[in-house]
Amino acid sequence: MDPGVLPACATGRMDKGGVRELFDGLALEYVHERDLQPSFLGQKREVLALLDGAGGRLLDIGCGPACMEGDLLSRGFEVVGVDVSLEMLRHGLQRLRAHPFGHRCRLELGDVERLGFRDASFDAVICMGVLEYLPAYDRAISEIYRVLRPGGVAVATVPNRLSPRHVAGAAARLAKRALGRPREYVPNRCIPWRMARQLRRQGFHLLAHRYCGTQFIVSATRERL
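-> structure tokens emitted (225 positions)
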């Protein structure tokens, strides 16, 4: 999820209430436009490719209006989707009613830093467009590791701070700040090698990574005991 540069609070950060309000307001736009955006379609293709060979019970963190769920259900997954936005979930439930395997999917409110599931309860986890709305990734990565079973696969997408577009954007923001323009909120983008180090430190074994436009996409597994 990358709606662009947004107004910031005085600290330059957006709290979870602000993120929830933001995506409640974006829900209709996501319903009508998300599946048509080349950037999202590219990310979806890469994430699905990194899930090849996986099956079973999958957790979709930041599921929005169920943009991934149709493809995941068609691959045979049993899906649980969580999101902070009630509006996103409402539209997602409407979409699933029309899917022949919609009964294999459950959507509910959830927080990536405090997932309400037992340890090792999912065979796969995907987390697309979520981590960048947190001030730090560590707690979320720890929760993803906790709910993933040993041998399971996790796939995450994060904006790549080193992509040419984001480097140019950072230079433009510095110029605006020098001119005294109001501070803008910018999602917490990753540096890919640091992201890989965080995953390893948590206990993940990295499987593969891809670059897709401005996004860094990484898959990892929780090693078997």
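Confidence is low (pLDDT under 50) at residues 1-12, 166-175.
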